[in-house]
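Supplementary Methods. Inverse-folding protocol.

Structures were first reduced to a discrete structure-token string of length 583. This string, shown here, constituted the complete conditioning input.
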């Protein structure tokens, strides 16, 4: 068996170079994406040395797009999609039209034929799925209204490009009088442009209907069935099979894109309680193949285009970065959305990617665009992806200078001041009490046990929502981080009888133990740890006892067996609270 194959070489060398250059980029405080793209340039045909297989790299990148869109679908319900259709549908269509017209204008200025300018403009009008989603995830915008609008906008753009890719061969055949060779349905059906359009829309509608009627029942059922087998390996395989299988079936049977098929598969599965676990199982592969996507993009870049056509390249970038952004901003503001939303959408769309490559390749194969136009599209994609983080930073700077931004800053300052006032409490009047640090799952049980036992206690919680929940039970609550000495003083740790640290972070808990012990040498301090090393760490810092959850569960099981309780009855929900009452 040979030890060298193009597939293995492409994956290994691509990932290793991406890792090295990504680390360097991170060290220089720039996006690791820059390192991934440069890795692609190094293994591409335009630089000396090893040349990776471009075809294989593109197919590997497509898997990354499928898994990424599947993950987006897992966090994006049909309700979310319908909630933004009023802005996403007209907004995407108008923005595509504006960018296409700008591209046609640039093509006309250098003497390209009208249809060539049309293809060029369309390629510049659609944003990259991977880049947009990565940008939203890094800025934690996926679950915001702005993020949902951006994703909905992206879905409409993908649908528009699906129609374009099907119609373009037929359009080329009509315009050239049959001189070009069509492909697939468009080239052989003889239906004409209107017929092909109607057939394509019908196939997309059929796919959506199939997913909503059949997929909604079959996909969650299949995953639940596998989950009940108890095999994590089979569950992970089932998730990947659903993501890749639906995407491939959507493209093969219904003619929609892999990305769109995977998105609907994830969206259907999001209705299942297992969606969170499914997202976690696909995350490592999503990240690995997303890196290969950027490497494959870098391989397409020909640095010589910068010297050959600098003015045309600047014009191309102006359309992508400025023309599309202004068009998106005006559209979103016209629908009376806030400036923050308009700027986020504008920055999100200020780049192009995978559909642009496909459209450029198809246009070149059909003879509709020349090599210069194709290279400009590829160069525009590379440079716009590199510049996209700058566009987000610029959008933030512009927003801060607007009236809306000033008002938001004032509200944030007021909220921060109010929070500071809430933390600036007078010391509690309690003495000899128990102080519970953290009101998560463990902290709730501890506090409830103390309350039922009639023991005086107070809760220290850093999160506003959890603090409100603790207050609702009648507990005295101090909002703040127990690492802060002022918070410990307000909780009267110096006069407390017990300190019960329920936060899971052993590093943070160790700091709390150390500061509390300095205030009170006789107080009983009980903390929690997840490993033997963490238990030792907490005891060394001054805790009287550090409890490891897994050990206590095991002891509880053994105790139930030795007492014969396991066969008699289940433990009551109040058992934990009663145990805490003995503290």
């Amino acid at each position: 068996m040979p030890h060298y194959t193009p597939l293995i070489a492409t994956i290994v060398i691509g990932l290793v170079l991406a890792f090295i250059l990504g680390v360097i980029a991170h060290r220089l405080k720039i996006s690791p994406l820059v390192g991934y793209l440069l890795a692609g340039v190094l293994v591409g045909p335009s630089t000396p040395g090893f040349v990776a297989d471009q075809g294989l790299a593109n197919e590997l990148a497509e898997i990354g797009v499928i898994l990424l869109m599947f993950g987006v679908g897992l966090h994006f319900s049909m309700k979310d999609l319908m909630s933004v259709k009023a802005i996403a549908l007209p907004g995407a269509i108008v923005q595509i039209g504006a960018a296409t017209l700008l591209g046609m204008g640039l093509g006309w200025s250098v003497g390209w034929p009208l249809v060539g300018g049309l293809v060029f403009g369309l390629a510049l009008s659609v944003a990259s799925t991977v880049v947009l989603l990565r940008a939203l995830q890094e800025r934690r915008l996926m679950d915001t209204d702005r993020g949902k609008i951006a994703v909905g906008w992206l879905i409409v753009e993908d649908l528009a490009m699906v129609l374009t890719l099907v119609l373009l061969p037929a359009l080329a055949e009509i315009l050239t009088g049959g001189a070009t060779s069509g492909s697939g349905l468009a080239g052989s059906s003889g239906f004409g442009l209107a017929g092909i359009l109607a057939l394509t829309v019908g196939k997309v509608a059929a796919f959506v209907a199939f997913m909503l009627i059949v997929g909604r029942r079959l996909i969650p059922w299949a995953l639940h069935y596998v989950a009940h087998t108890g095999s994590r390996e089979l569950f992970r395989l089932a998730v990947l099979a659903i993501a890749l299988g639906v995407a491939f079936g959507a493209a093969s049977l219904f003619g929609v894109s892999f990305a769109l098929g995977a998105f609907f598969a994830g969206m259907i599965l999001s209705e299942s309680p297992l969606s969170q676990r499914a997202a976690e199982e696909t995350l490592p592969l999503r990240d690995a193949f997303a890196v290969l996507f950027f490497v494959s993009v870098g391989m397409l870049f020909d640095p010589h285009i910068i010297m050959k056509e600098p003015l045309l390249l600047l014009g191309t970038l102006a359309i992508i970065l400025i023309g599309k952004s202004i068009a998106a901003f005006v559209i979103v503001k016209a629908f009376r959305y806030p400036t923050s939303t308009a700027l986020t959408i504008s920055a999100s769309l200020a780049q192009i990617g995978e559909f642009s490559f496909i459209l450029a390749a198809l246009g070149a194969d059909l003879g509709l665009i020349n090599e210069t136009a194709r290279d400009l599209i590829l160069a525009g994609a590379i440079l716009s992806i590199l510049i996209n983080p700058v566009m987000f930073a610029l959008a933030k700077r512009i927003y801060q200078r607007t009236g809306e931004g000033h008002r938001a800053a004032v509200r944030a300052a007021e909220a921060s001041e109010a929070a500071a006032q809430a933390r600036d409490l007078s010391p509690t009047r309690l003495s000899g009490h128990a102080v519970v640090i953290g009101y998560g799952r463990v902290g709730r049980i501890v506090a409830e046990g103390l309350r039922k036992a009639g023991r005086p206690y107070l809760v220290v919680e850093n999160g506003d929502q959890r603090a409100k929940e603790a207050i609702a039970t009648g507990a005295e609550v101090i909002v703040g981080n127990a690492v802060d000495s002022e918070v410990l003083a307000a909780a009267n740790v110096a006069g407390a009888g017990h300190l019960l640290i329920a936060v899971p972070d052993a590093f943070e808990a160790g700091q709390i133990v150390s500061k509390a012990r300095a205030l009170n040498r006789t107080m009983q301090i009980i903390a929690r740890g997840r490993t033997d090393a963490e238990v030792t760490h907490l005891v060394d810092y001054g805790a009287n006892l550090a409890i490891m959850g897994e050990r206590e569960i095991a002891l509880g099981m053994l105790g139930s067996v030795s007492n014969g309780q396991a066969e008699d009855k289940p433990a009551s929900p109040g058992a934990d609270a009663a145990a805490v009452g003995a503290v």
